[in-house]
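cache lookup: miss for this entity combination. No prior model stored, computing from scratch. Input as submitted by user K.M.:
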Amino acid sequence: AQSVAQPEDQVNVAEGNPLTVKCTYSVSGNPYLFWYVQYPNRGLQFLLKYITGDNLVKGSYGFEAEFNKSQTSFHLKKPSALVSDSALYFCAVRDANYGGATNKLIFGTGTLLAVQP
Amino acid sequence: EAQVTQNPRYLITVTGKKLTVTCSQNMNHEYMSWYRQDPGLGLRQIYYSMNVEVTDKGDVPEGYKVSRKEKRNFPLILESPSPNQTSLYFCASSSSTYSYEQYFGPGTRLTVT
């Protein structure tokens, strides 16, 4: 079965420090991986995606993610955290069943990022 | 402004009282879907639609209905809501079934007592 795991419910980091939000996946075939962010009382916003190519993917708001096939991981990173980065972050993989025709995303349980000033 | 809108944003209702949550997108997207978000479970897909008059079940369709009579609208219908349908609901759309980026609405928080 395809799945995404986010092992940390919450990540705490001081402003200015680097941050990492972890994600591992299990899929059949090539994974299409995504990160979304959810701010309080808002919908999910797309941050970045990995489809193919360079293992380091750059996205919105200075975030990047590193795809590691051998470790089946897709960790989200940022060199210097801001208080405004505090939000709920979701890792997702596109469902590969039916050749991806359903366009369904399989989400992790989310990681709350708290950046302290 | 390109966006997905949902109404209402908040709803408290009683068991068995039919309700509809509307979803509308202004991007001429073909693909739309509904998810529910529950603590510790992430988001799970309820129903999706590849185009007008084409809908199919997602992972948790029980107790829900949808329709897609127009491209821009994809309402979620709860014929007889129950307390286990208390959740945060999101509508999403993308330009096509194979489009990678999906746009999400602001969410509808539903409480069924």
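stored under new cache key. Residues 84 and 112 of chain B are 8 Å apart (CA to CA).
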